[in-house]
Amino acid sequence: MNKTAIVTGGSSGLGFATATKFCKNGIKTYIIGINEIQTKEACKELGENAIPVIYDLTNLDGIPKMISDIAKEGSIDILINNAGINLKKEFIDVTDAEFLKIIHLNILSVFSVSREVVKVMKDYGGGTIVNISSMASQYGIPKVIAYTASKGAIEAMTRAMAVDLAQYDVRVNCVAPGFIKTKMSDKAFSDEPARRDKVLSRTPMGILGKPSDIADTVYFYALEESGFITGTILPVDGGNSIGF
Fold it and tell me: Which domain of life is it from (predicted)?
């Protein structure tokens, strides 16, 4: 396919599922991760199309060099802004520092990475960016105020980016995952079975999604099959966001 992608936070979870989809389809994929062992192990599992980039995305000052180093190899055709962190805590107990930590990684780094990648994309005739949002941006979920704020911003940024970057033939879309069966969700639901019951009761399809459901959607947005689509936010959630 001769395309090059960057997947932030691609060493685990939905990012890893996306990187797997890309690598299996011949896309050279740079996986940006902060944990060196985990990131290198993920790339080893993914094979020759996966390239580890060990980097802390909260270090905004170093992002331009990190992206320019990747671009020395040529074009960057696809950017998946997947990296993010959450904080589950009562609203009145969240500190300013904790709120800012979520915003720093989930919003500021997305902007900085996107800005630098677009500089490369426009020199090579365009590209596509896929941001990852959440059900937290679709409706109120308790105890995740900072995460909710960050994902609401990501969806608004997606629309603004799409308008700003169309002049460079760069498309920008967003995937909003529903409740997906992962190790993290398994632990959360085992601790709170009532929450799992509530999630499934308002999901018309009555099941949790698979990481591959998200990866398949991101893959569609990344390629020419979605060539006339930009500025959209697509829930991949079994109907959860419209369930009653």
Answer: Bacteria
Rounded Cα distance between 108 and 98, Å, is 15
Q: Residue 177 to residues 98, 181, 221: CA-CA distances in angstroms?
A: 24, 11, 14
Name residue 175's beta-bridge partners.
132, 234
What 3-state DSSP class applies to 241?
helix
Which positions are catalytic?
147
Distance CA 20, CA 27 (A): 10
Distance CA 3, CA 28 (A): 6
Condensed to tens digits (0 to 9), the pLDDT of residues 19-68 reads: 999 999 999 999 999 999 999 999 999 999 999 999 999 999 999 999 99
- Catalogue all structural domains in the chain, each as residue range(s) with its CATH number: 4-180+210-237 (3.40.50.720)
Q: Cα separation of 234 and 119, whole Å? A: 26
Q: How many CA atoms within 13 Å lie on the side-chain side of 41?
A: 6
How far apart, in whole angstroms, are the C-alpha atoms of residue 203 and residue 208? 8
